[in-house]
Amino acid sequence: MVSGHRASGPGKRDKREAILQAAWELIRHHGYSRVTISEIAREAGVGKGTAYLYFHSKRDIMLALVDKTNSRITDDLERIASGSGSPRERLRECLLHRVLRIWDLVHRYRHGHEVITSLKPDIVARVEEHVRDQGEILARLLREGRFAVDDPDRMGQVLAGLFELLTPPYYGFRSRQSLQEFATQVADLVLRGLDGSAPEEKSDESVAQVT
Which of 193, 166, 192 is nearest to 180 (CA)? Predict the structure, then answer.
């Protein structure tokens, strides 16, 4: 059991969001295993029965937080993909952003690894849908950049899945810098391969010489 202050009732505030916010605050400070539904409800300013109207279990609350986090990352990738810079530059930034964002979230709080360990199979299954969404964003950049890939949609999914493997719980790095260096090397290697696969466009001068 953990101690905490009781929040004022949500009132007009969405109760589901209040429960998620309360759960996040408690879990990040005390750990997933120590926090109970009753404590989450009290922190959110709602009754325990109300909490169960929105979530069947503490596990469901945690997975909803996983969804919320990954939806924000998908929004970040949409923003990057729609921004300035060449398609290649935006593709590279997208590839690196998710890896480093997950690292920051997991390592910012001392109980981050405990949450992943406790719910690893569920988190892996839940994240798959978000990875597919993010792969679609990468596919759009592949088409925009006119990379010579046979199937941009498939390649987008491959890239999203590849960089997902650099995040917990799949891969552990000793420091953010070591992750950033490795992920950057992988991204640059992939992009060089994509650049090399693109057909060379003949200049007007070269065409004239041939004819």
Answer: 166
